[in-house]
Specification:
The complex is a heterodimer. Chain A is α+β, with helices and mostly antiparallel strands. Chain A folds into two domains: about 230 residues, P-loop containing nucleotide triphosphate hydrolases (Rossmann fold, 3-Layer(aba) Sandwich), CATH 3.40.50.300; about 120 residues, Beta Barrel (OB fold (Dihydrolipoamide Acetyltransferase, E2P)). Helix content of chain A is about 25%, strand content about 35%. In chain A, the strands form four sheets. Chain A has a six-stranded mixed sheet, with helices on both faces. The longest helix of chain A is centred in the middle third of the chain and has 18 residues. Chain B is mainly α. Chain B is built from 14 helices and two strands, in the order H-H-H-E-E-H-H-H-H-H-H-H-H-H-H-H. In chain B, helix 6 runs antiparallel to helix 9, helix 10 packs across helix 11 and helix 13 packs antiparallel against helix 14. Chain B is globular, with a radius of gyration of 27 Å. Classes of the chains: A alpha+beta, B mainly alpha. Chains A and B meet through strand 6 and helix 2 of A and helix 10 and helix 11 of B. The complex binds adenosine-5'-triphosphate and magnesium ion.
């Protein structure tokens, strides 16, 4: 087992930086997910941890030891590659046994460990096949099996289930999480799929263009995003953003929009005072935190028009046009609406966020 | 003009790519006959230059061939039955196999080593050009160059070997014990570059992710080479070996210049013996029989190598 510390790490390819001044700590036994859009430097980070890529600047510590110059073979970690990287001339069994054979473990122990892992991943009937005779999912499981058999101090997974179909992916998500809990091995898991990160990780590191945006538990990241970009990146369907002005309504600070004017809570006004916010701000509110009604009431006061409805199994999404903006609302399927119907929205002011309109940083 | 227009239109029909078939193809049997006629000249030429001599070779091997007016006479398989008791024939085979395997062993191992070094070198392009020079030389010229290098009175190579204490006074080519090494050295010198070239191409195709996965699995450089690089080079090595081994069986220009098969027949590999029988003693019938054994063995070995081409990674596992 190992804890990982990344201190001010940079990665340059030629003159272009791929990872910029990254600081990250992963505790012993923790499941940390690195999340970000394609090309943000996730794989580069992982490859530096594995020792496959030179670290341009900064240091990486495993426990208290600096490993910058340690070759991959001496790092005691296992990696699952984005494209499996199985050995085509070896059988599934030999692929999984490879690391143990290199360590000169005796045959009986290898056999036991490989068979055990195969059992876990339902690969037993395929042990004598070669990678070319496997489906994508089977290849993936073989690659994971190869990592498990190793019993390393650290797992590095690079989008291991990105290429599977949706159902198998959902299954593998929970399997991987259970497996990691059982083994108690520190895990760094790279993905561009927020659902994977949110559902599996103990903590998530959100990256964008090589820069770490936020590090925290899935709840923290979902509920308290540090900036406009993270707020928009996390959550499905995405958060609604509305540009508003700050005004005063009967002595209280209020959000002014052409469609509404809602006072902030006193706590929120307090927060704003300290932040030196300007006149204009961006309001962010998740579709879950907007409610909709067919009739106007004191609560449902924002008037709008239904543009489209979308049934998602147990939920329904309504896209409504209010004056000057569009708002997505998540409601339950019993809500009856047709295109063009009048509707009335209410925002849950306890759960909304304000962002600086220029810097994008979160005001509260 | 209109035809081109019609077919161009057909290509864009339905928005998808529709290949417009020529009229001759629509009527299959007719089309086949049409193409067959087109190929006739090529087939006839090919038959004349390869098949005719082949059958003529078989014919010769069954006759006592006389260059004079007497004509060829049937001799009851004597050309063939005498081969078994022909010591030089048996020894020729043995020497050929020895020569060929020695060449292959050194060329392949040296070729791989040099390719690995070149592959990592900054000056790869320049070095490859330099390394390829021996290959550009006509084998006869290469033979002559080395003939002088090996010369015991003024040969530079001989002097070097002698001062290193490896050779005695006798020239490497003049001694029964070392002459075989002499011709092997020349072949290795001239043809290792070809192996380098092929292996270098192969090295560029070794998947990097497999090497990396193996490194993470705990493998060092050497292990990585044997368990990932080498298996991935396998098809490339097969091509190289196939080419070299067929050449070893056919090309004797350099050997004829260097030793002519001597001293005391110590380098009389089968093709040189064949040359003697046919063109020194003009026993063309016996020569034909020897040539046919060479041909058959070459074909069989070639077929075995081609069979091995089915890369282990692409063939299905035996079980499962
Ligand atoms: N070997 C390389 N040479 C040059 N540039 C590279 C190299 N590898 C990656 N990059 C660049 O570095 C940036 C980060 O790449 P990286 O592979 O880390 O992205 P990623 O987050 O893993 O993306 P994805 O989700 O698509 O896998 C990209 O802009 C990429 O073009
Ligand atoms: Mg990647």
């Amino acid at each position: 087992m190992a804890s990982i510390t990344i201190n001010n790490v940079w990665k340059y390819y030629g003159d272009t930086p791929a990872v910029k001044d990254l600081n990250l700590v992963c505790h012993d036994g923790e499941f940390v997910s690195i999340l970000g859009p394609s090309g943000c430097g996730k794989s580069s980070t992982l490859r530096m941890l594995a020792g496959l890529e030179h670290i341009s600047a900064g240091e990486v510590l495993f426990d208290e030891t600096k490993v910058n110059d340690l070759p991959p073979k001496d790092r005691n970690l296992a990696m699952v590659f984005e494209n499996y990287a199985l050995y085509p001339h070896k059988t599934v069994y030999q692929n999984m046994a490879n690391s143990l054979v290199i360590q000169k473990v005796d045959k009986a122990t290898i056999d036991e460990k490989v068979k055990h892992a195969a059992e876990l991943l339902e690969l037993t009937p395929l042990l004598n096949r070669k990678p070319l005779e496997l489906s994508g999912g089977q290849k993936q499981r073989t690659a994971i099996g190869r990592a498990i058999v190793r019993e390393p101090a650290l797992f590095l997974f690079d989008e291991p289930i990105a290429h599977l179909d949706a159902k198998l992916r959902a299954h593998m998500r929970s399997e991987l999480k259970i497996m990691q809990r059982k083994l108690g091995t520190t895990m760094i898991y790279v993905t561009h799929d927020q659902l994977e990160a949110l559902s599996m990780a103990d903590r998530i590191a959100v990256m964008r263009d090589g820069v770490l945006q936020q590090m925290g538990t899935p709840k923290e990241i979902y509920n308290n995003p540090t900036n406009h970009w993270v707020a928009g990146f996390i959550g499905e369907p995405a958060m609604n953003f509305l540009d508003c002005n700050l005004g005063t309504v009967s002595g209280n600070t209020a959000l002014e929009h052409s469609a509404f004017s809602i006072p902030l809570t006193s706590e929120q006004s307090q927060n704003l005072l300290g932040s030196g916010a300007e006149q204009s701000v961006t309001l962010g509110i998740r579709p879950d935190d907007v409610s909709i009604s067919t009739n106007p009431s004191e609560k449902h006061s924002i008037e709008g028009e239904v543009l489209v409805t979308e049934l998602l199994g147990g939920d329904m999404l309504v896209e409504a046009q209010i004056e000057g903006s569009r708002v997505t609302v998540k409601t339950d399927p019993s809500y009856e609406a047709d295109m063009g119907d009048q509707c009335y929205l209410a925002f849950d002011s306890a759960r909304w966020h304000l962002f600086d309109i220029n810097t994008g940083s979160t005001l509260f | 003009m209109t035809d081109a227009f019609v077919s161009a239109k057909a290509v864009f029909r339905d928005g998808g790519l529709v290949i417009d078939e020529p009229a001759a193809m629509r009527n299959k049997p007719l089309a086949n006959r049409f193409y067959f006629y087109l190929m006739m000249p090529a087939i006839i030429v090919l038959a004349c230059i390869t098949l005719y001599p082949f059958f003529w070779l078989i014919f010769m091997s069954l006759h006592k061939v006389d260059m004079g007016a007497a004509g060829d006479t049937w001799n009851n398989f004597k050309n063939w039955t005498r081969l078994g008791s022909d010591r030089k024939f048996v020894q020729g085979w043995w020497l050929l196999l020895k020569y060929s395997s020695l060449c292959m062993l050194f060329e392949v191992s040296l070729g791989i080593m040099l390719a690995l070094i070149l592959n990592r070198s900054k000056w790869e392009k320049l070095l490859v050009t330099v390394f390829l020079m021996p290959m550009m030389m006509a084998p006869v010229i290469a033979g002559l160059v080395w003939y002088y290098l090996f010369n015991s009175t003024f040969g530079w190579y001989h002097w070097l070997m002698q001062s290193l204490g490896i050779l005695g006074d006798k020239s490497i080519l003049g001694d029964k014990a070392t002459a075989m090494w002499g011709i092997v050295i020349v072949d290795v010198w001239q043809w290792t570059p070809l192996i380098i070239l092929i292996v270098l191409a192969g090295l560029k195709r070794v998947p990097r992710d497999q090497l990396e996965a193996n490194m993470v699995d705990g493998a060092g450089e050497i292990r990585n080479f044997f368990s990932i690089t080498l298996p991935n080079l396998y098809p490339f090595l097969l091509i190289a070996v196939l080419l070299r081994f067929m050449d070893n069986f056919r090309f004797i220009d350099a050997i004829l210049v260097l030793t002519g098969g001597g001293p005391a027949n110590s380098t009389k590999i089968l093709p040189t013996y064949l040359f003697d029988v046919s063109f020194t003693f003009f026993k063309l019938g016996r020569g034909a029989a020897i040539a046919l054994t060479l041909l058959v063995v070459t074909i069989i070995l070639g077929m075995i190598l081609v069979k091995l081409f089915e890369n282990p990674s692409t063939t299905k596992s035996s079980e499962a």
